[in-house]
Design a protein that fits this description.
alpha+beta; Helix Hairpins; Immunoglobulin-like; five-stranded mixed beta sheet; five-stranded antiparallel beta sheet; 8 helices; 14 strands; elongated; disordered N terminus; disordered C terminus
Length: 351
């Protein structure tokens, strides 16, 4: 059977990409299974977390807001504070040059600038910079009423712009930010004979965060009795949610008992329910004495079952304590216990 050119085009644009995508997905699953099996064969020797889907880049889509009013100019202050320093300084410089360009255009229209070349935008721009920067006139100066009026207007604008720019820079410079590190993965493993959700937070700075408080919430997709899809949020009860002074490391624990929203969960069920963990840390920086906060989101693929975080605290023979931050993100395999069969046996993994 002969295909038309259009038929081949439809085949190439639809069927071929689908086959290629399925092939890549199959290859990825096979590679992931091999890596998982290799880790299960020697968990103690590797002393790392299983490479599960946690190493796979997150494919979660960002939330797209439709119909909300645009308030870009109204929220410029918050946008400026959230921007990087390079972006913030570039915005100030660009605004300064743009405003000078506007006044340069006005000087070109009004004229009245002595010793400026007729029709020269560069000379008008240089005269505007001298006026706005209060540098002091050299060879160029205003000679008529219109030019003097523009000079007065630009001087007033210069005062306002300078005050606003100074306030923005000072507000951004004095804004205290947290450098709180979260472990790459959350882990579920036995703790005192009970399955426990574990994650690690720490202060990357050398100081302490006073009265640090951590909150862990779980978001799960559920259906109501009316059949409506609902994203329900649960607050997880923690073994300890407050630390007087958080320094380098803090392991946050949630016991999965009968009252826990995670009771009876499995890796398959949390993936089906699209479970997410939202972790927030709030405290007072002991250097700036300002409140700092940080947050982290864990998707279901970033939760490792049958593992715990590696020990980072050790004691030397002379009694000195050593904190090894190189082990901050590392995970160690745990042994299965009754009621918690993770890590799974090799025969279950092979199937």
């Amino acid at each position: 059977m002969r295909w038309s050119i259009r038929g081949w085009g439809v085949y190439a644009s639809t069927i071929v990409p689908q086959c290629r995508r399925k092939a890549w997905e199959t290859i990825w699953k096979q590679d992931a299974a091999k890596e998982e099996l290799r880790w299960r064969l020697a968990p103690a020797a590797r002393n790392v977390a299983p490479p599960l889907a946690s190493i796979r880049p997150s494919t979660a889509q960002e939330i797209v807001v439709v119909g909300a009013p645009r308030t870009t100019l109204r929220d410029f202050y918050h946008l400026f504070l959230r921007a990087r320093w390079s972006v913030a300084l570039a915005a100030i410089v660009a605004s300064y040059l743009a405003l000078n360009a506007v006044f340069a255009g006005i000087f070109l229209m009004t004229g009245g600038v002595a010793n400026a070349k007729p029709g020269s935008f560069f000379d008008a721009f240089c005269f505007s910079v001298q006026t706005m920067g209060t540098i002091g006139y050299g060879a160029m100066y205003p000679t008529n009423v219109a030019a003097n009026v523009v000079v007065i207007s630009e001087s007033v604008a210069s005062l306002i712009i300078t005050a606003v720019a100074t306030g923005l820079v000072f507000a951004k410079f004095s804004r205290s930010t947290a450098r709180v590190a979260f472990s790459r993965n959350a882990a579920i493993g036995p703790m005192d004979g009970v399955p426990t959700l574990m994650l690690r937070v720490g202060n990357e700075r050398g100081n302490s965060i006073l009265e640090a408080t951590v909150r862990v919430s779980m978001v799960r997709t559920e259906k109501t009795r009316e059949g409506v899809l609902f994203y329900r949020m649960y607050d997880l009860t923690l073994a300890r949610e407050r630390s007087p002074a958080m320094t380098r490391s803090w392991t946050v624990l949630h016991t999965i008992d009968a009252q826990s929203p995670l009771a009876g969960s499995t890796p398959e069920s949390i993936a089906k329910d699209e479970i997410e963990l939202l972790v927030t840390v709030v405290g007072v920086d002991d250097t700036s004495l300002q409140q700092v906060h940080a947050r982290r989101r864990y998707l279901d693929r970033e939760i490792v079952w049958g593992a715990r975080h590696a020990d980072i605290l050790s004691e030397e023979p002379n009694g000195r304590l050593v904190v090894d931050m190189r082990q901050f993100h590392e995970l160690v395999a745990t042994e299965p216990i009754p009621g918690f069969a993770y890590p799974r046996p090799l025969d279950d993994l092979a199937r």
